[in-house]
Amino acid sequence: MKVEDTNALHFILPDEIYLLDEDKPLYSISATPTPEIKTLPLSFNYLGSNKKNFVLLVHYPLHEFIQDDHLVALESILTAKKLSLEDVAIVNIARQNAPVYGDIQTFFHPKTIVLLGKDALPEALPPAKFNVIEEINGVKLLHTYAFSEMMDNNINKKAFWEQVKTL
Predict the structure, then answer these.
(1) Quick check: helix, strand or coil at residue 96?
(2) DSSP state letter for 87
(3) DSSP alpha helices (H): ranges in 37-140?
(4) Domain spans of the chain?
(5) pTM of the entire structure?
């Protein structure tokens, strides 16, 4: 027999019906299943291995990581600092999904962050002076020129190098 109105059950079944505690949520009208909230693991697409926790933030909308001739220039700078691509992480901000400064800190555990250009700024970055090394929460931070601003400008190159060589 199928009963469509549960209020009619007390006429058909005069005895009381008891539910076990573990079954009560299944029959409760007010019980609504709570949706499971899944957070995606934090990840970044970057070039390098970040062995020395040295993060370079760049902005190249048309390239996966960095323009080829700029990468060659960067590698020569790294070599002069006795570093290699294995020691750093090059993160192209233009190809990330709205990166937040705190997420970059959490993922990379940087000791040094170099922001190459005004467009390479992640969200929620503490205010930083331009082309001056500052320490913010134990991280050396340098916001400096983009490679496109330095490739044909010796004054910018020299100002950049004066800061980078002290990192």
Answers:
(1) coil
(2) G
(3) 68-80, 101-108
(4) 46-164
(5) 0.75
CA distance 85 to 10: 77
Predicted confidence at residue 22, as pLDDT, reads 79
**119: burial class by Cβ within 10 Å (0-12, 13-18, 19+)?**
middle
Q: Is the pLDDT higher at 38 or at 116?
A: 116
The b-or-e profile of 92-116 (16+ CB within 10 A means b, else e) is: bbebbeebebebbbebbebebbbbb
CATH class of this structure's domain 46-164: alpha beta
How far apart, in whole angstroms, are the C-alpha atoms of residue 53 and residue 88?
Answer: 6
Per-residue pLDDT tens over the stretch 113-122: 999 999 999 9
Question: Tokens 């496109």 identify what position?
Answer: 148
